[in-house]
Amino acid sequence: MQLHSITLRAMRMKMKSPFTTSFGTEWDRHFILVEIRDKDGRSGWGESVAMKEPLYNEETVATNWHMMKDFLIPLLFKNTVEHPDQVSQLFSHIRRNNMAKAALEGAMWDLFAKQQELPLSRALGGQRTAIEVGISLGIQDSVEKLLDLVAKYVEEGYRRIKIKIKPGWDVAVVEAVRRQFPDILLMADANSAYTLADSDHLARLDQYNLMMIEQPLSHDDIIDHSKLQKKLQTPICLDESIHSLEDARKAVELGSCRIINIKVGRVGGLTESKRIQAYCLSQGIGVWCGGMLEAGVGRAHNVAVTTLPGFTLPGDTAASSRYWEQDIIEPEVTVDKGLIQVPSAPGIGYCPVRRIIDEYTLYTETFRP
Ligand code: OSB
Ligand code: MG
């Protein structure tokens, strides 16, 4: 793949409504958009999901910019890549910084698929023509407000409802949602808000028939999660703790989870995501695609990866309109009866719109070999 240039854009997009988790509230989404051009004028697009502040993980928009500019982009220019599967190998001696790596790797995958005139889903080996999706609902000011939101999205057809929990907003909230919606697929995500000392409290959630409880304990733990899983009937799903296939293998071997949330950014890219889903499929571990409040480019990558066979559970990739007045792609991602139709155009299959992108761009820099 002959590269002509790489452009980074620092973006800010106002969210329709703030999103609150146990670690904080997002009002605006800050992220980096990556555009890699080849010599024939094609563009591959990637989106870094690192946030402005290091609250979900240690990466930020500024650290990602630094990693890409000073280490990762020079590696892409100095080496020839025949296939995007080689990119993660090329980056492997750089420790972590997975979201920075994934943003560049994702743009290389999009570019490759466009060069091959294949939809990204097919270039990855995915077969599905539609994917099932759920939605993630942040912590609200009141239970009534949450119940209204659940009703709205159940009505819209979302196949699974995830609610965020934290100490003080957990058992009673789950109980209220379950009472009003006895039959929906329901789960809770704690974003690491508890410790093993809360085991008995968390076990009270077993009575509400949750599909899973996501990342109840520390962001870097798999040991205590294996102890907690033994005390819970509800499957544990790991999010923050899993950064690679190796992490997934260790967590599965320890019995720390029965389900894994794959976020392409957190595991360093699409190639590593493919490997994790294949491993989980072989082990009977459920997998779904998580979200990081992505704009259209990241959303498109999530749609493509979810077509792989290991993604057996509905993910968090909601419609563009869930967060954005106006997304940066055309057409926008839409959800009908809880399904997203997988695009068949080459690459990510949605077209980034430069006029709209420019409106949200704070600053930009272009690099050439
Ligand atoms: O833990 O899955 C998470 C958003 C930001 C950071 C972490 C998480 C989330 C979500 C939202 O749950 C998923 C989405 O709608 O993109
Ligand atoms: Mg999560």
Automatic annotation (TrEMBL):
Residues 143-235 form the Mandelate racemase/muconate lactonizing enzyme C-terminal domain. Mg(2+) binds at residues 189, 214, 239. The keyword Metal-binding applies. Its cofactor is a divalent metal cation. One of its GO terms (molecular function) is magnesium ion binding. It comes from the Bacteria. The active site is at 164 (proton donor), 263 (proton acceptor). This is o-succinylbenzoate synthase. It holds the Pfam family MR_MLE_C. Pathway: Quinol/quinone metabolism; menaquinone biosynthesis; Quinol/quinone metabolism; 1,4-dihydroxy-2-naphthoate biosynthesis; 1,4-dihydroxy-2-naphthoate from chorismate: step 4/7. Gene3D superfamilies: Enolase-like C-terminal domain (3.20.20.120), Enolase-like, N-terminal domain (3.30.390.10). It comes from Desulforamulus ferrireducens. It is an enzyme of class 4 (lyase). Converts 2-succinyl-6-hydroxy-2,4-cyclohexadiene-1-carboxylate (SHCHC) to 2-succinylbenzoate (OSB). Its EC number is 4.2.1.113. Keywords: Lyase, Magnesium, Menaquinone biosynthesis, Metal-binding. GO terms for biological process: menaquinone biosynthetic process. Belongs to the mandelate racemase/muconate lactonizing enzyme family. MenC type 2 subfamily. It catalyses: (1R,6R)-6-hydroxy-2-succinyl-cyclohexa-2,4-diene-1-carboxylate = 2-succinylbenzoate + H2O.
